[in-house]
Design goal:
The protein is about 35% helix and about 20% strand. The chain has twelve helices and twelve strands. Helix 4 crosses helix 5 (about 130-135) and helix 9 runs antiparallel to helix 10. It starts with a strand and ends with a helix. Strand 4, helix 5 and strand 5 form a beta-alpha-beta unit. By secondary structure, the protein is α/β, with parallel strands linked by helices. The chain binds beta-D-ribofuranose and calcium ion. One of its GO terms (cellular component) is cytosol. Keywords: Glycosidase, Hydrolase. Pfam families: IU_nuc_hydro. It comes from Roseivivax marinus.
C-alpha cells in the first residue's frame, strides 16, 4: 500500500475521502491526518477529523492540529456549504480520541524524513497552509515525497468561491504558489473533475442501503452538502471533491488529464487564487503538475460504495 498523510479541513467531502482511505488498507496506509483551518476554523476541523476516525473505528490513526490561519491573508471559511460545524448532516457523537501530540507541520516533516525517500504521498484536501509551512521549515522534504495528490483549482470550471478561484487555493493562495513551485511530483483534482463526481439520488440511496453507520452517515452528509449545489446551481447532486484524491490512489485509471504548467495568482484581488493552468501549452513555461480533466463517474461511485461497505 501507498503510505499517505491526509492534510484536511473536514468538511463532508473530506470525511468521505478519509473513509475511503481507511476502508482500503491494501492500497492505502494512512500514516497521519493533519488538520488545517479551511471550511471551518481549526478547532472544528481537528474535531471533525477525529469524529471520522471514530466512525471508521480507527482511533489508532494520529490526528494532529496544524495551522489555524493562512500564510498572509485573512481566514476564509465555507460554512455556507458545510454548515456551522463543517460536518452538518449526520448526528455523530463528540470525539473521545485525543489530539495527537506535536504540530501538524512537524508531523508532516517527521514522517517524510523518517520513511524511506520516495515512499510518502501527501494528500492535501484543504488550503495548502500546512504543506507550505512544512516545505518552508524543511525544504528537503520536497525531494523525498513520492507525490502530492491534491484537490484544488479549476480550469474550464473556473471558480466556486470567487468567479475565478476554487476554495482551497483561494483560501491560501500564497501557500498554493509555494507548493506548485516546490519541485515534487504533483497531481491535481480540480473542479473540472470533481464537478463530474456528483452524488445523484440513486448513488446516495446506494450509500444509505449499505445499512451500516458509515453508509448512513455518508448518505446524511451528502444530503446536507447537496442542498447547496442543487439549490444554487441546479446541479444533479453534491460534488464529491476530496474523495477524488483517495480514489486516484486506488484506481488512477478512473481519471485522465494533462501534465501542464500551473501558476497561482497571488497579486490581483480580482483573480486571487486562480490556478492558471496552461492546458494548451501556449506559455512556454515548464510543466509542473498533472491537472486532471475528466473521470469515469460510474466507476468512481462503484469503487466508493464497495469500499465504504467494508467499514
Ligand atoms: C473544496 O473546498 C471545500 O469546501 C471542499 O472540502 C473541497 O476540498 C472544493 O472547492
Ligand atoms: Ca476539503
Amino acid at each position: 500500500p501507498r503510505k499517505i498523510i491526509i492534510d484536511t479541513d473536514p468538511g463532508q467531502d473530506d470525511a468521505v475521502a478519509i473513509l475511503l482511505a481507511l476502508a482500503s488498507p491494501e492500497d492505502i496506509e494512512v500514516a497521519a491526518i493533519t488538520a488545517v483551518a479551511g471550511n471551518v476554523p481549526l478547532e472544528l476541523t481537528v474535531r471533525n477529523a477525529r469524529i471520522v476516525c471514530e466512525l471508521a473505528g480507527r482511533t489508532d490513526v494520529p490526528v494532529h492540529a496544524g495551522c489555524d490561519r493562512p500564510l498572509e491573508r485573512a481566514p476564509v471559511t465555507a460554512e455556507h456549504v458545510h454548515g456551522k460545524t463543517g460536518l452538518d448532516g449526520p448526528d455523530l457523537p463528540d470525539p473521545t480520541m485525543p489530539i495527537a501530540e506535536g504540530h501538524g507541520v512537524d508531523a508532516i516533516i517527521d514522517i517524510v524524513r523518517r520513511e524511506p525517500a520516495g515512499t510518502v504521498t501527501l494528500c492535501p484536501l484543504g488550503p495548502l497552509t500546512n504543506v507550505a509551512r512544512a516545505l518552508e521549515k524543511a525544504p528537503d522534504i520536497a525531494g523525498r515525497l513520492q507525490e502530492i495528490v491534491l484537490m484544488g483549482g479549476a480550469y474550464f470550471e473556473v471558480g466556486n468561491i470567487t468567479p475565478t478561484a476554487e476554495f482551497n487555493i483561494y483560501a491560501d493562495p500564497h501557500a498554493a504558489a509555494r507548493v506548485f513551485a516546490c519541485g515534487a511530483k504533483i497531481t491535481v483534482m480540480p473542479l473540472d473533475v470533481t464537478h463530474k463526481a456528483l452524488v445523484t439520488k440513486t448513488r446516495n440511496d446506494a450509500f444509505r442501503a449499505l445499512g451500516t453507520p458509515v453508509g448512513v452517515a455518508v448518505a446524511e452528509m451528502t444530503d446536507f452538502f447537496e442542498r447547496f449545489d442543487k439549490e444554487k446551481y441546479g446541479s444533479l447532486g453534491a460534488p464529491l471533491h476530496d474523495p477524488c484524491v483517495t480514489a486516484y490512489l486506488i484506481d488512477p485509471e478512473i481519471f485522465s488529464g494533462r501534465f501542464v504548467n500551473v501558476e497561482i495568482e497571488t497579486v490581483s484581488e480580482l483573480c486571487m487564487g486562480m490556478t492558471v493552468a496552461d492546458w494548451w501549452g501556449v506559455s512556454g513555461r515548464a510543466p509542473n503538475a498533472t491537472f486532471m480533466g475528466d473521470l469515469d463517474a460510474d466507476r468512481f461511485f462503484a469503487l466508493l460504495t464497495e469500499r465504504l461497505a467494508r467499514l
